[in-house]
Design brief:
Blueprint: E1 2-5, H1 9-13, H2 16-29, E2 33-35, H3 45-49, H4 53-67, E3 73-75, H5 78-90, H6 95-106, E4 108-110, H7 111-118, E5 127-134, H8 138-143, H9 148-155, E6 158-162, H10 178-181, H11 183-200, E7 204-207, H12 210-222, E8 228-231, H13 232-236
Parallel strand pairs: 1-2, 1-3, 3-4, 5-6, 5-7, 7-8
Helix pairs in contact: 4-6, 5-6, 7-9, 11-12
Length: about 240
């Protein structure tokens, strides 16, 4: 099966060697041929969320052209997958572009959603001894509607002792530009999240949205907590004997 990888801005700029590589290796291990369209840029979500819809439309048209020929588009970010799903609404004033946007939206999947719902796989042969908890990001769960796929995959990770995160539905305080514009509130929200993670006693905090993980991970580091933050792609790429 051929798929095009949409790595996202944070994936490309901050996590290419960890999350990007892990995503490719997991997909290839499951029999996929992975293409990386080099023309890909930002999906336009920061501009869209800030009210700059004309700028967001330019980004949307570019990304539609970039991924138009791909059979499937897979991204390790539920938040950015949601933005692709937003394109038809964003471009609703132009019927031709709206149709092209609908086609892209229909073939775009968050990584765990693609593995479980399209490939039909729940056990990827991963192994990670230790205790872990999982952060359910807002965009992925509330807008994309992906809640079960990550859990199904984590349940099959050999050696992983899973602990439910208290108040898991609460936002971590990132929210894209919210963390910049409303910094004092964002800081209090992420402090709450870190407290809840610590309450579980978990060694690992796992998530599927890079923005959330960057936000929570940064706060964990600043507070000197010994919790390792992992994207779920990194977890799924751990096999027995791997470091």
């Amino acid at each position: 099966m051929n798929v095009a990888l949409f790595l996202t801005c944070l994936g490309d700029a901050v996590y290419p060697a960890s999350v990007g590589r892990s995503t490719v290796e997991v997909l290839e291990r499951l029999g996929c041929e992975v293409d990386f369209p080099t023309a890909q840029t930002c999906c336009g979500q920061p501009a869209f969320n800030s009210g700059y819809h004309e700028d967001a439309k330019k980004a949307a048209r570019h990304m539609i052209r970039t991924f138009e020929d791909a059979p499937y588009v897979v991204t390790p970010s539920g938040s950015c997958a949601v933005m692709f799903r937003e394109y038809p609404h964003l471009l609703r004033d132009d019927p031709e572009w709206q149709l092209r946007a609908e086609r892209l939206a229909a073939k775009t999947y968050e990584l765990t959603q693609f593995i479980v719902d399209v490939l039909g796989v729940e056990d990827v042969g991963a192994s990670l001894p230790g205790s872990a908890t999982y952060h359910t990001s807002c965009h992925m769960t509330r807008l994309l509607g992906v809640t079960e796929a990550p859990m199904k995959l984590l349940q099959h990770v050999k050696g992983l002792d899973f602990h439910e995160l208290p108040y898991k539905e609460q936002c971590c305080g990132f929210g894209g530009t919210f963390a910049v514009k409303m910094m004092p509130i964002s800081e209090q929200m992420v402090d709450d999240k870190v407290d809840y993670v610590e309450e579980t006693g978990a060694e690992y905090l796992i998530g599927a949205d890079l923005g959330c993980l960057m936000n929570i991970g940064g706060r964990i580091e600043r507070r000197g907590k010994e919790v390792k933050v992992l994207h779920i792609a990194e977890v799924l790429n751990q096999t027995e004997g791997a470091g």
